[in-house]
C-alpha cells in the first residue's frame, strides 16, 4: 500500500439515456492493489457505471483511463485484452460448457491458436491446451471448486457459479477485476468463501472494483468506497467515513427532509 | 384476507424465497423492506401469479389461489404495480388507465368509466394530461399513472413494488399519502415494498424486514421505526439478519 | 411424446432399409398399374416369367406437374392396353414410374434407381430439360436407351454437335417452333419484332434459337428482354416495348406467365399481333388469359387441331384415336405433352417387338431401322445424325378465336 | 411526353405491386409485434385466399361473398396454425421458429396442390375492367382496387390500433408485455388474435392479386419474401412504415424493370434491402422508439 | 494425468468418426447397388455443407439462409474453370473455395452485425442475388440452360466416374471435415465460439472478438459448401441455377436443425434423414394411398418437419443423447462407472 499508483481513473463520467441522466459527472480513482467498492441504492446508476467502464455502453461524456490509456470507445473485448475482466450481477457463465472449459475460455486472450492451426491440431496447439488446462485447474483450486471441474457449468449451485466466474475472470492475469454484486444470492457460508477468495487474490496483487449491496461485506473488505445515488456521487472514503456520512445514511434509509438527494423527473 | 404459508420460490437454481409466512387483514397497509436481492420483488411477483411458487400456499379470502396465473389473480382482485412503473409508453394516459380495467372492461363498461373519474380525482395532476403519451410524463407522474392503472383493476389487494424509486422526496411523500388515503377511505389492502424504509414505515400499519428470502423482523411500523436493528440491518453490522 | 417421435425416426431408418431390400419385390406393387398385376396372373402360362421393364420418370408434381401428369397418365394407359392385349411378343410389360418432383437431384436419383436397381430395358421421361439433361449422362454411362420427353435440343445433341448415342428425343426442338414462327412472320412481312421470353431454361433456349435463325428469315428484333416466371405485372417491361413500336410481339413462355404478359399487352392497347410459343398450347391458357387470348397466334403440334386436319393427312387417324382414348379414360382433353409419351412408348415397343430386350439392339433399331414413323407428335425420321427426326411441318400455326384453336393459313 | 407516360405507367404498376406487398407486409408486422415471431408462411395465406375465393366463385358464390368467405376461412386456418404450431413452439429459438414456419408453408403449399392442382386459375376482376387512360398511361380498375383496398386496410389498422379497446390492448402487449400481463391481458389470446387478423388480411391480398396475375399453389413464396423485404425496409415494428416500405419496393421493382432489366430486378431489390440492413437496420421509416428491434 | 484428463474433457479420440467410416466403407462389401451409393453420395454432399453450417448456426449462433450461394459458387467455379479453361479439377476446387471465402468475407463483415430475423433475411437476400447472377451471366454460366459437360474428377490417373468412387471421395472429404471441425471446436477457437452461444456479453468480457470469430466460421462454412458444390458439379456433370435457389439454402438449414444444430453428428443425421425421408415417403406413401402423386409426400414431409421441431426443438441427435444418458443413469452402476458416464455426458464429443 505504500507507493500507491492509480490504475483506473474515472473523470466526470456522464451517461444520459433519452433525457434521463443515469450517471452524472462521476469521478474517482482506483489505486493499484486495493479493493474499491461502489455502493448506492437500487437504480442509482452503478451498473451503468460498470457497463461504461467495460465498454458495454458508450459514455455520453467524460473519460475513463486505465493505466493512463483512454478506454472510451474501446470495444469490450479490447478492454478485456488490455487487462480488465469482470463478473456479472446475473450470472453469465457459459452454461453450455464444462466448468474447466469455462475457465479455459477465460484464458482466451493468453492463447495463440488460430482457426487453421486449431483445425489441423498441430503439436503446438496441443501443448498450449495442456498448459491452459493446468492453469485452469489451478485457478479452480484457488477458488475451491476444482472437484467440479468436469461438470456442465449450468448444473452448478449458484454460489459455485459465482466462484467460477471469478476463476474465469482471474485466469488471464488481469490487472483489474470488476465484480458486479458478487454476493447477491449467496448464503453466508458462500459469501464467506467468496470474501476469502477475493482477499487472497488481492494479496497476490490483484485490484478489485466492485458493486455490492451487502453492506457487511462492503464494510469489511473494502479499502475505499464511493457512494452513488441517483447517478450522483454523494460520498467517498474509507468504510468508517462512509458509515458516518449523513448523506449516505439518508440515501439508504430515505429521510425526506434530507438535502442533496436530487429528484428525477 | 390474505394468508401466506411457507412460500418458496426458485429462479432456476437460485432459491429466492425461503419460507415466507404472513397474514394480512382487510384495510391494512403492510410495508416490506429489505436490501436488494432479499427477494422482495420475487415475493410480490409470486403473489401476483407472475412466478410459480415451488412450494407453500397462498390463501385469499379462505380460498387457495397458489396456482392461479396472472389473469386469474387480477380477476380475483390481486393487482401488482410493478417496479419501475412499466407504463405503456406510447399509449395515452387515458388508455393506460383504461387498460388497467382490461379484465372487466367489457362486462362493466359503465362502471369502469365511473371509476375512471374517481381515480382521476385521486390524481388531479393526471387530469390535465389525459391525451399525452405515458412515456412523456415525468417520473412522479408516471408512478401516479401506474398506481392509478393498478386501481382501475378494482383490486382488493394492491401491491406496489418500490413506488419511490428515482422520485424526489416531496413526490414520494405525496404518493405515500395517497396510499394511506386509499386504505383509510376505500378500505384497500396494500402491500408496499420499499427501499425507502422511513417513508414506507411512516404510512404503514405494519412492516417486516426481508433478508435472504425470509422475514427476519416484523412488527408494527412504529416498532420497526424505533428498532435500531432495522437501521443496522442496512449496514450489515448485525449477524442476526443473516441466516 | 418426445419418445414417440424418437422411436418414429428409428422406425424410419428401418423402414428405409426395408424399402431398399424389398425394392424388387415391392416395386411391382408400388408402381405398376393395377391391371398389369392382374394380367400377369392371366398371361403367366404364355410367357417366360421375366417381364419387360420400362421405367418412366416424370415431373408429376412440383412446378412442371401440368406437363408431367399427362405424360404419366398416357404411358400408364398405353401399358395397360398393351398388357391387356398380351404384352410384347407374349411378354408382359412391367412399368415402373418415378416422380422427380420437377427437381434435378430427384431426377438423378430416380434415373440411378431405374438403371441400377430396376435394370430398366428402356427409360422414358425427363419432363423438363433440366432434369433430362441431368439424367442423360447416366443413360450413356449405363448404356441404356433413353427416350427423352424434354424439348431442349441439347438433350440429344452433345457439345460438339454429334448425336448422343443412347438418347432419343420425342418433342420438337424449340428451333422448329422458332423457325415456324419466323416463317410466318416472313410470310406476313412483319420484320421488326419484339422478343420477350420467360427467364428460365425454356425461355432462354427459345431465345438462343431466335437469335440464331432470325437473320436467316430477315427478321430483326427491336427489343429483346425477359420476364420472370412469377411475373405479376409486366407493364413496366411493356412500356419499353411500346416505345419501340414493333410489327409483332413474340411472347415465349409457358401458360401462367404468358397469360399475364399477353393480358398486359392487351391492357396497354398494343396493336401489334402477338405470337406465342407452343408452350401455351393447352386449354388452360385460354381459360386463364380469357379474352386476351383471342387472336394470339402460335405454333403447335397437330393434336389441338386434329379434327380440322384434312383426311389425307397421314397423322390424322393416330391423332384422333389417341385423343379419344385419353379423353375416354381420364375424362379430360388430351394434351400435347401426353403425345410425346405416347410416341416414346410406341417407338420403344416397336423396337422391343423386333429386337427383344437387348439394349444395344433396341438402340440400333431406333437409330437405323425404324424408318419413317408416323407418330402422334409428328412424322419421325430418326437417323444416326438426328435422334429427334421431326421437321418444322410437325407444327401448325394456330390462331385462338373465341376459345377455339383455328388453323391459321 | 412519351417519357412522362412511360413514367406514369411504371408508377401505376409499382403502386399495384406495392399495394399487394403492403397487405401481406402488414400481416408480418402484426404477428411480429405481438408474438415476436416472423411468420415465413405469411405469403401462403395470400395463396390460400386466392385459391379458396376462386373455388367459391366457380361454385357460383357471388364474388363479394366469396371474398368474405375466403377471408374467414383463411383466418380460421391462421387460427389453427397459431394454436398448433406457433403457440406450442413459441419458446424455441429464432432459428427453430423460422424453420417451423417454413415447414408450415411447405405443408400449406402441398395441401394446395392436393386441392387445386398445379394449374393456374383466375378470378374475374372485382368490377368491369375497362382500362382508363391517364396521360397515355393505362390504369385498370383492378389496380385501383388493389391500391384502394390496401389504403383502406391501412386506415382500418390505424383506427383499430389507436381507437379500439382491443387494438389498444394489443398495442399494450407490444409496448410492454410484462405490464400487459399484470393488467390481466392474456398475451396468448392476443397472439391468436394477431395471427387470425393477419391471415385474413393476407387472404384479402390474395383475392386482390388473383384477377391480375392468376393464382397458383406456389404464388405465396415470392410474395411472402418480397413483403418481408418491404416490412424490414420500412421498419419491422411499425405497420404504416411497412406499408410505405411495400410501396417503395413495388415502385423500385417497376422502375428497374421498366428502365433497365427485368432479370436483374431481384438483384436490385435485394441489394437495396442489404444496403438498408447495413446502414439503417431499424428500417427507413421507423421512429426511434423503445420497441423491439 | 493431465493428458488423460484432457482426453476426458475433450474426448477427442477419432474413434467416433472412424467407426462411422468403417461402417460406411464396409457397405460395398454387403451391397453393390448403385442406387444405394448414389443416395449415400447425395447424403455426403449435403452433410459436407451441413457440417459447416451447423458450426455456424450452433456454435457461432448465426443463421444463414444463403448457403446455397456458396454451394453454387463452388459448383460453377469448378464447372467454368475445368470445362471452359481446362484447369485441373483439384485446382478448380481450391480456386472455387477461395472465391467463396472472399465472397463470404465481403458479405460477412456487414452482415454479421445483424441479428436474428434480420440476419436471416440478409443472408436470404444474398442467396437470391447470387442465384439471379448465375442466371443472368449466361455467357459464363450458361444461364438458365445450365452448364454441360463438366469433366469427372481424377486423382493420380484414376478417374472418378462411378457412384461408388464418388461415394468414397465425398465421404473422405466429410471425414476430414469432421476432424477439422471437431479440432476447432475443441480448441481455443471453439471455446470462443461456444462462449458466444453461452453468453455473448461474458464472451466479450473475457476478450473474445465476437465479430472476428463469427466471420472466420462463416468463411469456413462457405469453403465447405463450396467444396461440396464443386464435387457435386463433377459428379452430376451438369448443373443449372435451379440447383442453387433459396429453397436449397432453406433445406440445408432444415437438415441442420432437424439433426440438431451445433452438433456435427447432427448435421450428418440431418442430411441423411432428409434424403432418406424422401426416399421412404416415395416408397411408402403410394402403398398407403395409391393413386396420389408426389404432392402427398411433400405434405407428409412438411408435417413431419413441423412436428419434429415442435416436440424436439433441439433436433434429433441431442434428443437422442439426452435419452441415452437418462437411460444410462437409470441403470444401477457402481460409483466409478457413474463418474465416467457423467464425464462422457459432459464431454466435448457431442458439443
UniProtKB/TrEMBL annotation, chain B:
* One of the GO BP terms on file: L-amino acid transport
Residue intervals of the ABC transporter domain:
2-237
What SMART domains would the database entry show?
A: AAA (SM00382)
Question: Which InterPro entries does the record match to this protein?
Answer: AAA+_ATPase, ABC_transporter-like_ATP-bd, ABC_transporter-like_CS, BCAA_Transport_ATP-bd_LivF, P-loop_NTPase
Source organism, top-level taxon:
Bacteria
Q: State the UniProt keywords alphabetically.
A: Amino-acid transport, ATP-binding, Nucleotide-binding, Transport
Per the UniProt record, one Pfam family is: ABC_tran
Record GO terms (molecular function): ATP binding; ATP hydrolysis activity; branched-chain amino acid transmembrane transporter activity
Q: Which family does it belong to?
A: Belongs to the ABC transporter superfamily.
Q: What is this protein called?
A: ABC transporter ATP-binding protein
Q: Which organism is it from?
A: Ureibacillus endophyticus
Organismal lineage:
Bacteria, Bacillati, Bacillota, Bacilli, Bacillales
UniProtKB/TrEMBL annotation, chain C:
**Signal peptide region:** 1-25
For the Leucine-binding protein domain, which residue ranges apply?
A: 51-389
Q: Which GO terms describe its biological process?
A: amino acid transport
Q: Which Pfam families match?
A: Peripla_BP_6
Locate the compositionally biased regions of type Basic and acidic residues.
27-40
- Keyword Signal among UniProt keywords: yes
> Could you tell me which residues belong to the region Disordered?
27-50
Keywords of this protein's UniProt record, alphabetized?
A: Amino-acid transport, Signal, Transport
Respond yes or no to whether keyword Ion transport is given for this record: no
Top-rank taxon of the source lineage equals Bacteria
The Swiss-Prot or TrEMBL record describes its family as follows:
Belongs to the leucine-binding protein family.
| Name of the molecule in the record | ABC transporter substrate-binding protein
Species of origin reads Ureibacillus endophyticus
From TrEMBL, chain D:
Q: Give the record's keywords alphabetically.
A: Amino-acid transport, Cell membrane, Membrane, Transmembrane, Transmembrane helix, Transport
Q: Does the keyword Membrane apply?
A: yes
Gene Ontology terms for molecular function: transmembrane transporter activity
Compartment(s): Cell membrane
Query: Superkingdom, according to UniProt?
Result: Bacteria
Membrane protein topology class: Multi-pass membrane protein
The entry's family comment says:
Belongs to the binding-protein-dependent transport system permease family. LivHM subfamily.
Q: What is this protein called?
A: Branched-chain amino acid ABC transporter permease
Organism from which the protein derives: Ureibacillus endophyticus
Automatic annotation (TrEMBL), chain E:
Origin organism of this chain? Ureibacillus endophyticus
Q: What is its main location?
A: membrane
Q: Which GO terms describe its cellular component?
A: plasma membrane
Give compartment(s): Cell membrane
Q: How does it sit in the membrane?
A: Multi-pass membrane protein
Q: Name one GO molecular function term.
A: branched-chain amino acid transmembrane transporter activity
| InterPro entries assigned | ABC_transp_permease, LivM-like
Q: Which PANTHER family match?
A: BRANCHED AMINO ACID TRANSPORT SYSTEM PERMEASE (PTHR30482:SF18), HIGH-AFFINITY BRANCHED-CHAIN AMINO ACID TRANSPORT SYSTEM PERMEASE (PTHR30482)
Q: What is this protein called?
A: Branched-chain amino acid ABC transporter permease
Q: Name one Pfam family in it.
A: BPD_transp_2
The UniProt keywords, alphabetically, are: Cell membrane, Membrane, Transmembrane, Transmembrane helix
> Taxonomically, what lineage is the organism?
Bacteria, Bacillati, Bacillota, Bacilli, Bacillales
Q: Where are the transmembrane segments?
A: 12-30, 36-56, 68-85, 91-109, 116-134, 166-185, 217-238, 250-276, 288-312
